[in-house]
Amino acid sequence: MAARVNEQLQDAAVGHAVDLQQFANGLVARIIGVLNRSDAELAARLTAALDGLPASQATVERIDALLASVRALNLVAYQAVERELTAELRALAAYEAGHQLELFEATIPSQVVTRVGVAAVNVEQVFAAAMARPFQGRLLREWAADIGEARMVRIRDAVRQGYVQQESIGQIVQRIRGTRTRAYRDGLIEIDRRGAEAVVRTAVSHTAGYVRETFYEANDSLVKAQVWTATLDTRTSEICRIRDGKQYRPVSPYQPIGHKLPWLGGPGRAHWQCRSMAVPVVKSWAELGLQMDDAPASTRASMDGQVPEDVTFAAWIKRQPAARQDQVLGATRGRLMRSGGLDLPAFYDNKGTMLTLDELRERDAAAFKRAGL
Description:
By secondary structure, the protein is mainly α. The chain has helices spanning 5-51, 60-66, 68-107, 110-116, 123-131, 140-164, 169-177, 190-218, 238-241, 297-302, 313-318, 322-329, 331-339, 357-363, 365-370, and strands at 223-229, 247-248, 256-257, 277-282. A four-stranded antiparallel sheet has the order 3-2-1-4. Strand 2 (247-248) and strand 3 (256-257) form a beta hairpin. Helix 1 runs antiparallel to helix 8 (190-218), helix 3 (68-107) runs antiparallel to helix 6 (140-164) and helix 6 runs antiparallel to helix 7 (169-177). The longest helix has 47 residues, at 5-51.
């Protein structure tokens, strides 16, 4: 028997969530690249600004005045981050709207699509609405500005502290930027890179989730519920753990169905870097009020309105084609899973962090041998 419509939608939702996370990975790399490119110039300007300021003359007012050029460069860097991120999120909104429309039209039987229809959403309107809606309490432009401000405060305070402790200019700059040998990850401004990464990942989830929910609302004649699903979280937060598998109405205010747990921000937006997702549940043939005796019994059966059983990421990845497994896990891990006898949990440590290939080999050299690696 062919998979039911709701099972197909669930399977597609997991795969799509994987793709969105990979998109977020690439976007994070580009945004961090924008900041990294400005850091060398920032260090040079900082060195030049402090070069002519003896410790005996280093008052708060003089330090703040000398940091004006650094402050200007920092502002430009975060304005570039906001522009880059906004452009990418606009493209993401268009992609997400198109993906949901194509998915429904391809998955739901043509007899249902013909009778009930599948509504598209206006991309520009939904993107504008998503950008006007705060995530984790603030708008995107406010997060970009706040991280930039926080970084400048960190730089200013580090300079003041350096003069008090009689550090050299080189020591002050190194403490702020970090060392080359550690890829500058040991500097104070690494905190702000991590903050930028959290904003990027949360903004991707926020935008995709808002478009998806708008699409479900536009098609509430078809969609009867959405299920909070934490399939992709290896370290599920308490917020999402308790909501995993819970159903909600597909229209705002997203009231709970059969429980009392509030929607909060919704899957993907309940907390920073949330990886939960919403899976739609379409109505049954009878719930749609369709009387089409001429439709094949298998077609009617596929529209049974049943909520599919919970699926784990491990179960999902195992039934994917080899090419898809390699795309998600990487070619070596994909081969290890197929030929080395390693289950998905073996790729992670007890904190939910993916092990490097060297760490994996150290833990299970026999699996590498079985896989011919």
